[in-house]
Amino acid sequence: MNIVAVVITLNRPESASRCLASVFAGSLRPNRVIVVDNGSAVPYTSPPEYQQDVEVVRLEHNTGPAGGAAAGQQKALDIGADWVWMLDDDAVVEPDALVTLLERTLTEHTRSYYRSVCYNMSQPELPFFNSFTYNRHTGILRPVPRERYLESEFTFDACSMAGLFVPCTLFDEVGLFDASLFGWYDDTEFTLRATLHHFQGYAIPASRLLHPSANRRHLRFLGRSLAILVEEPARLYYGTRNSILVQRRFLTRGRFFGLFLPLFAVRRFISIILLYNNRRAFLRYFAKGILDGLHGRTGEIVKGGSLT
Question: What is the CATH number of domain 3-211?
Answer without folding.
Answer: 3.90.550.60
